[in-house]
Design goal:
Structural class: alpha/beta
Number of strands: 13
Largest sheet: 7 strands, mixed
Number of helices: 10
Length: about 280
C-alpha cells in the first residue's frame, strides 16, 4: 500500500544505495570517517544517498542522527520508505492474523527463536529480558516494547524478525519457506531471518525509489554484504559486495570492494570517479 510520493524528483542520473549493518557500519557498528566523508561528498554533488536496511524506523534514525546524515530511508527491507523529512511515502505489510499464524507455527515446531514484530515505529517482543533481544536493542540504539501481536495498534505488520541459533537458522528458514510460500522470507545474517509480505525486498524498494526520483536503475550504485542484499545488488547497474560478505555470496556477485572495516564504500566510490581520494 502506498501513500504516494511526497519527495521531489531529481534529475541526477546516479543514486547511491547502501545497506547498514555490515556495510555502512563497521564491525563496531560505527561509520568510519572516510565513509562519512564519502556520503558528504556525493550529497554535495546532488547525488542522492539512500539507506536501505532491514532495520525498523526506530532502529535506523538514532544512527543517522548520531552521524548527522539526512537522506531518504528504506526500512524493513522495503516495507516502509521515508523521505528526507522523515515522511512515509510508501508502506506495505501483512495482517496481525498472518503474523500470529507464523509465530504459532514456530512455537508448534519447537524452534528456539526470539521473535520481534514491527509495525511502523512500534517494535514488539514477548520478552525484553531475552539476551538476544537486548543485544539487538544495543546494536540499533532503540528499545523494544514488551507485548503480543494483538497489542499492536495498527493491523499492519511490516516485518517479523526472528533471532535464531546459527546452527538452526538454515533449517528454520527452509521450514518457513515451505509452510508460508505466500510471504517473503530472507536470511539477513547467520542468526537473523526476516519474514515480510510477498514482494517486499530491497530490490523492489530500489526500483520504486528510482521511479519516484526519475532516475535510471541501470545508473544506480548499491552496496551490501549479506543474502538479503543480493537481489538489490543484481537489480542496479553497479552492485558492490563488501569484502566481509559470506563466501557463498562472493561466488555470485563479481563486483566487490573492501570490507566494512576498511572503507569499502569510500574505495568503491573513488574507483567509480564519484568522489576524489582524500590526500
Amino acid at each position: 500500500m502506498a501513500d504516494g510520493a511526497k519527495g521531489t524528483r531529481t534529475g541526477s542520473k546516479t543514486i547511491v544505495f547502501s545497506d547498514v549493518d555490515g556495510t555502512l557500519l563497521n564491525s563496531e557498528h560505527r561509520i568510519t570517517p572516510l565513509t562519512r566523508r564519502a556520503i558528504e561528498r556525493v550529497q554535495e554533488q546532488g547525488i542522492p544517498f539512500v539507506i536501505v536496511t532491514a532495520r525498523g524506523i526506530t532502529g535506523t534514525y538514532p544512527m543517522l542522527d548520531q552521524n548527522d546524515i539526512s537522506c531518504f530511508v528504506v526500512t524493513y527491507s522495503g516495507g516502509v520508505i521515508l523521505d528526507r523529512e522523515r515522511r512515509v511515502i510508501y508502506h506495505r505489510g501483512f495482517s496481525k492474523a498472518d503474523a500470529q499464524e507464523i509465530i504459532g507455527f514456530l512455537s508448534f515446531e519447537g524452534f528456539d527463536v526470539a521473535w520481534n514484530a514491527y509495525s511502523f515505529e512500534d517494535w514488539v517482543t514477548p520478552d525484553r529480558s531475552d539476551g538476544r533481544v537486548r543485544n539487538e536493542e544495543r546494536i540499533v540504539m532503540a528499545e523494544a516494547r514488551e507485548g503480543t501481536i494483538s497489542s499492536i495498534e495498527r493491523d499492519e505488520v511490516q516485518k517479523l524478525l526472528l533471532i535464531c541459533d546459527s546452527v538452526q537458522t538454515p533449517q528454520i528458514e527452509a521450514r518457513l519457506k515451505a509452510r508460508f510460500p505466500q510471504h517473503a522470507i530472507a536470511r539477513s545474517s547467520d542468526i537473523l531471518i526476516e519474514v515480510m509480505p510477498a514482494g517486499t525486498s530491497k530490490a523492489n524498494a530500489v526500483r520504486t525509489l528510482c521511479d519516484l526520483m526519475g532516475a535510471d536503475l541501470s545508473s544506480a550504485i548499491a552496496f551490501g554484504d549479506n543474502y538479503n542484499d543480493v537481489p538489490m545488488l543484481e537489480a542496479v547497474g553497479r552492485g558492490y559486495l563488501m569484502g566481509n560478505a559470506p563466501a557463498e555470496i562472493k561466488e555470485r556477485i563479481s563486483l566487490q570492494t573492501l570490507d566494512n572495516d576498511h572503507d569499502g564504500i569510500y574505495e568503491a566510490l573513488v574507483g567509480e570517479g564519484l568522489i576524489d581520494r582524500v590526500s
